[in-house]
Automatic annotation (TrEMBL):
UniProt cross-references to PANTHER family, sorted A to Z: SPORULATION PROTEIN YKVU (PTHR43823)
Family: Belongs to the multi antimicrobial extrusion (MATE) (TC 2.A.66.1) family. MepA subfamily.
Membrane topology: Multi-pass membrane protein
Transmembrane segments: 20-40, 52-76, 97-119, 139-157, 169-188, 194-215, 236-259, 279-305, 326-351, 357-378
Family annotation (CDD domains): MATE_MepA_like
Species annotation: Paenibacillus eucommiae
Principal cellular location given in the protein's record: membrane
Entry protein name: Multidrug export protein MepA
Keywords: Antibiotic resistance, Cell membrane, Membrane, Transmembrane, Transmembrane helix, Transport
């Protein structure tokens, strides 16, 4: 019992700096491994099965993205409310929220998966398949739709385990999923020489192995995650959905970012422009997940401190996180400016046209990282304290509203440079709105923001 009490109150007694590092390092390492897994998976499929198979997987990938978005929507929404309750020492409500969230994500994924499976043919063609790509897209999608609930439950549970004071186990689960997915798919493709459907099964199996790692958390005495009998609670459901919505929107925004840049670059620079963006997008996905790991690190801390009304700890956490994000952004800017050519060269030998576009575009685009990390941190902060409107604005503006407006207007004035500037400018403008919001509300006693926050 003594050990359980110590674990329960660790965030009450541990310094803010120690707590931040304890969550930051596992979160960032876990996300980096996931990013590497995405890149390696694509490389293996493309090299072994060819470009048509890779295109088929790309057409079916929105199903995977949807499941990621749903797991984060319910996972982060539920885990935030869970940590609020833990901070307020209301263990019964915390466990009710956990049970409710896991039930929702399991049932919702299963229902959506079965429904989409029934109508999979029009869905596949609606996503852009043709006679060549249909067999690959269909084979992959069938497996993901029927067994995707394994992945969503694993992803959502990892968020809860992190919020229950076990970020290291959450990291180990991410690493288990990423590395096992690479190994399994290598065996499937290069040893057994199987097809796309088996690759999808490999991903599900890797997620199941990650889930098994997470389930060991329930064997620990300090575990607060308990399943309870629940009754229908409309208010709780709405709370979880509303708080988690910015995370769902962020995943949708990634698709908007990719589609808008592909269309603009294809129109301006043709195939070379799209190829250059593909190279940059691989690099961006790694850095983006790193910043996401930074946001994931502060979410349990801010949520717990907010629930326990520990305002000073909350302010110190956000201050450290903003400083860390700014430092990371400056470091990335300097590294990419100096090493853009060799970084692009990692992805292969390309024509001079593609290489020049990728290098020049990368050097402009990387300016976004000066602001992006801070925006991620502040979005997570507002989401964690229940200020959903501001969190939603940050996500929608940086990935959709402002970015789309800029990418529609600026390239007409300055050409391809306007495409590369769309994200840096939108990120900078969003940060300005955050500062304005802070200045307007910093003096309000009812607003959780204070001068020390930024």
């Amino acid at each position: 019992m003594m050990k359980e009490q110590q674990t329960l109150h660790l965030l009450d007694t541990q310094s803010v700096g120690q707590a931040f590092l304890r969550y930051l390092i596992p979160s960032m390492l876990g996300m980096l491994l996931v990013a590497v897994n995405i890149v390696v998976d694509g490389v293996m499929v493309g090299n072994k099965l060819g470009s048509t198979a890779l295109a088929g997987l790309g057409i079916a990938s929105p199903v995977y993205s949807l499941f990621v978005a749903m797991s984060l929507w319910i996972g982060i929404g539920g885990a935030t409310v869970y940590s609020h309750a833990l901070g307020a020492k209301d263990r019964l409500r915390a466990q009710t929220v956990f049970t409710y969230s896991v039930t929702i994500i399991f049932v919702a994924t299963l229902v959506i998966g079965i429904t989409a499976f029934i109508f999979r043919d029009p869905l596949i063609y609606g996503l852009g398949a043709n006679a060549e790509t249909y067999p690959y897209a269909s084979a992959y999608m069938k497996v993901m739709l029927m067994f995707g609930f394994v992945f969503t439950v694993e992803n959502a549970l990892s968020v809860f385990v992190r919020n229950d004071g076990n970020p290291n186990l959450s990291m180990v689960a991410h690493i288990t999923f990423a590395l096992s997915n690479i190994v399994i798919n290598y065996i499937i493709l290069y040893v057994l020489e199987l097809g796309v459907a088996s690759v999808a099964f490999g991903t599900i199996l890797a997620a199941f192995l990650g889930l098994l790692v997470l389930l060991t958390h329930f064997l620990k005495k300090a575990n607060q995650l308990k399943l309870r009998r629940i009754k229908w609670d409309k208010t709780l459901l709405i709370t979880v959905i509303v708080i988690g919505f910015p995370s769902f929107l962020a995943e949708v925004g990634l698709s908007v970012f990719t589609i808008s840049h592909n269309l603009s670059l294809e129109r301006i620079a043709g195939t070379d422009g799209v190829a250059a963006f593909s190279i940059m997008n691989y690099i961006h996905s790694i850095i983006l997940l790193t910043f996401l790991g930074m946001g994931s690190a502060i979410q349990p801390l801010i949520s717990y401190y907010h629930g326990g009304k520990q305002d000073e700890r909350k302010r110190r956490t956000i201050r450290i996180a903003v400083q860390t994000a700014l430092g990371a952004g400056v470091a990335l800017l300097l590294i990419v400016q100096m090493a853009a050519v060799p970084i692009v060269g990692i992805f292969g030998s390309f024509s001079d046209g593609v290489t020049d576009l990728a290098v020049s575009g990368l050097r402009i685009f990387v300016m976004a990282y000066l602001f992006m990390g801070i925006n991620f941190v502040m979005m997570t902060y507002f989401q964690s304290i229940g200020s959903v409107r501001m969190a939603t604005w940050i996500t929608a503006a940086r990935e959709m509203i402002l970015m789309l407006a800029i990418i529609l207007i600026l390239p007409k004035l300055i050409g391809i440079t306007g495409v590369w500037l769309a994200v840096p400018l939108s990120e900078c403008m969003v940060l300005i709105t955050i500062v304005i919001y802070y200045k307007r509300h910093a003096q309000s006693e009812k607003n959780p923001l204070r001068k020390a926050d930024i």
